[in-house]
Amino acid sequence: MTDAAVLEVRDLHMQFPIGGGILDRLRLDRRGIRLENPIVKAVNGVSLRIERGEIMALVGESGCGKSTVAKTIARIYKPTRGEVRIDGTDVADFGYAQMLPVRARMQMIFQDPYASLNPRQRVRDIVAEPLLEQSKTAQMRAAVPDRIAQLLARVGLNAEHAGRYPHQFSGGQRQRIGIARALSVTPGLIIADEPVSALDVSIQAQILNLMKDLRDEFGLAYLFISHDLSVVHHIADKVGVMYLGFMVENAARDVLFARPRHPYTRALLSAAPSIKPKRDKEEILLTGEVPSALDLPSGCCFRTRCPFAWDRCASEQPALQDVGDGQTVACHLIDEPERDIL
């Protein structure tokens, strides 16, 4: 198992059946026809691999499924099908008792640094909770106070902060508490779901640099969920691009930012704000709405908004293909040199 990746996901699917009631209006397809037994297809065959000490970012528009991937890997949701391998062990079908030791190797940092902390607990209790849950002996429990002090100091907080409540801290300090809690059980993998999106830009930089320092110090691997491409460029080693539950492109960070191959990736990068003068590449404007995950388009999921789509895109779903330098792309343009404008 020593050669196994910290995280390997294979053909992950996550679907949510929809009932009636107030959600009944969602039971219509894009033509207005009522769907029987509607299912939200939130994640559709996503595969990824993260090695020890590596940071992988998932990017895409809101609703593309990146946070659902994160929560399914963390087993907040049980996957509909597929494999989730932590250090080589498939945990996709594990029950609560089986997952308990696994959670010591996989922790999560959430988007909202206030909502993710119990307002009725002091900081010492918040950080101690995972430790006490995982401690198996009295000796381990006795060491918890010292461990809390070490963790708070490592994330830039003082010992006196241990006795305070979450509302007494700023957003950046609360996220540091969340990071200390995640580190408490010495995990190998941390899933960070938009961990800096609720913070000011200057505080974002501090938290990102702290996460990178912790990666170097403890050999951590991160699955980093974000919609902010500047943040991704700063922290990630490689990037996966998602659209409507599908992985459409996957590459090392510098490769992807230098030469994006999928039209959707190009559109995301061209739309990203920049303080630099106007770039050489023309901005790609996407028209139309994102299709419903209740009623996915035939063929390529992006074809309804893609400026380069043609007949094949409507009839055949593209598979991820290796285009060199470890970059994989799910686009029919790769197979059509005469059409390849990427």
Q: What is the topology?
A:
Elements: E1 7-17, E2 39-50, E3 55-59, H1 66-73, E4 81-86, E5 89-90, H2 96-103, E6 106-109, H3 123-134, H4 138-142, H5 144-154, H6 171-183, E7 189-193, H7 201-218, E8 221-225, H8 229-235, E9 238-243, E10 246-252, H9 253-258, H10 263-271, H11 311-315, E11 321-322, E12 328-329
Parallel strand pairs: 3-8, 3-9, 6-7, 7-8
Antiparallel strand pairs: 1-2, 1-4, 4-5, 9-10, 10-12, 11-12
Helix pairs in contact: 3-5, 3-6, 5-6, 6-7
CA(first)-CA(last) distance: 40 Å
Structural class: alpha/beta
Query: What is the count of β-strands?
Result: 12
Radius of gyration: 21 Å
> Quick check: average pLDDT?
89
How would you describe this protein?
There is one protein chain. The strands form two sheets. Strands 6-7-8-3-9-10-12-11 form an eight-stranded mixed sheet, sandwiched between helices. Helix content is 30%, strand content 20%. α3 (123-134) crosses α5 and α6 (171-183) packs parallel to α7. The two termini are 40 Å apart. It has helices at 66-73, 96-103, 123-134, 138-142, 144-154, 171-183, 201-218, 229-235, 253-258, 263-271, 311-315; strands at 7-17, 39-50, 55-59, 81-86, 89-90, 106-109, 189-193, 221-225, 238-243, 246-252, 321-322, 328-329.
